[in-house]
């Protein structure tokens, strides 16, 4: 076997190992799992379900609202096809930093959701403040100048779904499911949109 054939063979197996590694990463990223917590104060390493339960418990004990904000890159499949996995991950890393810079409270959490999104768990945050936070994040991402030629906006935008509830025991995962449903509804309406699912009763809305 010649040296050229050996080098080519090594490169072939390097590509195979790299591909298998990406597939394993994708399997780990499927569904609502925590990939990263933002900032040192948020690096708990707990699974998403535990973070949701913890946020629910905090809000329940304080008798305040819990906001759950799901955000995702619009047109992500097209972005991924046009730019590739490495560029997509770089884009998500930059959005990580944008969101992390805006979370100032110890109880706030921001977790990676699937391959293209983020989930913010915001106990004791009024819905208007959560809505303003979503708008500020979206504006900051636009200002970051992340190009997306596959989008009509010409830049990366974030769709957002916000669910708000006044928690009472026992823990109810539906707040997370409704945040994701609101996200999908927002994305069907267009780019950079926000939709809100309010699970509070009328008396609770007035009191909040």
From TrEMBL:
Domain of life: Bacteria
Signal peptide as annotated in the record: none
GGDEF domain ranges (all copies): 64-199
SUPFAM superfamilies listed in its UniProt record: Nucleotide cyclase (SSF55073)
Name assigned to this protein: GGDEF domain-containing protein
């Amino acid at each position: 076997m010649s040296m050229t054939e050996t080098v080519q063979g090594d490169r072939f197996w390097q590509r195979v190992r790299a591909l298998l590694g990406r597939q394993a990463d994708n399997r780990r990223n499927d569904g609502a799992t925590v990939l990263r917590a933002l900032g040192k104060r948020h690096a708990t390493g707990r699974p998403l379900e535990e973070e949701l339960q913890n946020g629910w418990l905090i809000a329940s004990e304080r008798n305040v609202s819990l906001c759950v904000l799901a955000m995702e890159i619009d047109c992500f499949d097209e972005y991924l096809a046009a730019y590739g996995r490495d560029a997509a991950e770089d884009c998500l890393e930059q959005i990580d930093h944008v969101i992390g810079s805006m979370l100032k409270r110890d109880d706030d959490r921001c977790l990676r959701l699937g391959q293209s999104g983020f989930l913010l768990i915001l106990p004791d945050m009024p819905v208007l403040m959560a809505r303003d936070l979503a708008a500020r994040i979206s504006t900051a991402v636009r200002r970051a100048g992340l190009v997306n030629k596959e989008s009509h906006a010409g830049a990366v935008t974030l769709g957002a779904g916000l669910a708000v509830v006044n928690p009472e025991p026992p823990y109810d995962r539906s707040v997370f499911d409704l945040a994701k449903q609101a996200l999908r509804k927002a994305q069907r309406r267009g780019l950079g949109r926000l939709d809100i699912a309010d699970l509070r009763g009328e008396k609770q809305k007035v009191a909040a």
